[in-house]
């Protein structure tokens, strides 16, 4: 079938390898989960989700006030799953500040967000929390998933750390204070099977291939704080590529604007469907707020059925190389 005909036939909204996988442990959540909400999502009942855009600062209470306001506004709009960007709870201006604030997931900062989720009757994706690391000088950059009862359902520690000399910008060395994770995380939810990632992970497609083809992800979460330079060049392109090549929804919550005199983020929180179409974004790339879309998992199945790349893919750990020693 020609691609033009295929596109016309799909119900699209208007608006890896095993070798790589072997290096990591795999935590797969809620096998066989069969709640009414999960069954509804699997059957294709649309689920309303929101993607947040905000400008976090070096004040935990001020950031929580913003998150709380947006959560309550989203709940009033019928949102059942709200996704926040990386470092939603704190962005400092001095080296080492975040390490001093880092807490375990049962600490007071995260418990405050657990209470918010319960009070709002909403699932929350909290990207890039400063979780206490293996010692007092280290932290983890952790994506935390909280359900509508206020329980931490799953967490993912960012694998790919941002150690980059950004052209015309500045040098970033995330590994100076952060320990990388080693666990790939996929978890069932009422909104489909979720693949958890964080920001710089976006540049490593094999992670998303593993989430899709090894662990059946349907929705990929990419909370981020992209720099202005890299965001202008690559943000939307990379996100749409991940959606197209995995045939998944992608929800990408972004930090936006100037956090302090040293740091500025690109913004542009978006939701992309499995055909690569942007179905929700804020009208202003730098504003604080949220955009809403209804996820319909029947669209995921429609795209995958009509273009069955899972059946056609060839490359894996058993593929023979022509390289001669």
From TrEMBL:
Domain of life: Eukaryota
InterPro entries per the UniProt record, alphabetical: C-N_Hydrolase, C-N_Hydrolase_sf, Nit1/2_C-N_Hydrolase
Pfam families: CN_hydrolase (PF00795)
Keyword Transit peptide recorded: no
GO MF term list: hydrolase activity, acting on carbon-nitrogen (but not peptide) bonds
Alphabetically ordered keywords of this record: Hydrolase, Signal
Signal peptide limits: 1-21
UniProt domain CN hydrolase: residue ranges: 47-297
Record bears the keyword Hydrolase: yes
Protein name, per record: CN hydrolase domain-containing protein
């Amino acid at each position: 079938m020609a691609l033009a005909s295929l596109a016309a036939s799909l119900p699209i909204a208007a608006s890896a390898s095993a070798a790589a996988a072997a290096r990591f442990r795999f935590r797969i959540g809620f096998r066989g989960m069969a709640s009414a909400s999960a069954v509804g999502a699997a059957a294709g009942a649309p689920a309303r989700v929101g993607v947040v855009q905000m400008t976090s600062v070096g004040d935990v209470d001020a950031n929580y006030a913003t998150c709380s306001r947006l959560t309550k506004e989203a709940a009033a709009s019928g949102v059942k799953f709200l996704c926040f960007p990386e470092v939603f709870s704190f962005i400092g201006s001095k080296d080492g500040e975040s390490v001093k604030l880092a807490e375990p997931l049962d600490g007071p900062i995260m418990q405050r967000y657990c209470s918010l989720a319960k009070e709002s009757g909403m699932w929350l994706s909290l990207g890039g929390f400063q979780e206490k690391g293996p010692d007092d000088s280290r932290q983890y950059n952790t994506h935390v998933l909280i359900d509508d009862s206020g329980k931490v359902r799953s967490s993912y520690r960012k694998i790919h750390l941002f150690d980059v000399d950004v052209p015309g910008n500045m040098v970033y060395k995330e590994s100076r204070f952060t320990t990388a994770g080693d666990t790939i995380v996929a978890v069932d939810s009422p909104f489909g099977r979720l693949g958890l990632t964080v920001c710089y992970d976006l540049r490593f497609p094999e992670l998303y291939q593993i989430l899709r083809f090894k662990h059946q992800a349907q929705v990929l979460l990419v909370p981020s704080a992209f720099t202005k330079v890299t965001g202008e060049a690559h943000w939307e392109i990379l996100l749409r590529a991940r959606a197209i090549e995995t045939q998944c929804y992608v929800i990408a919550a972004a930090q936006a604007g100037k956090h302090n005199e040293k740091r500025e983020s690109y913004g542009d929180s978006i939701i992309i469907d499995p055909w690569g179409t942007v179905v929700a974004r804020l009208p202003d790339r730098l504003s604080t707020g949220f955009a809403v879309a209804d996820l319909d998992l029947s669209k995921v199945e429609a795209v995958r059925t009509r273009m069955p790349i899972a059946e056609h893919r060839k490359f894996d750990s058993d593929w023979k190389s022509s390289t001669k020693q």
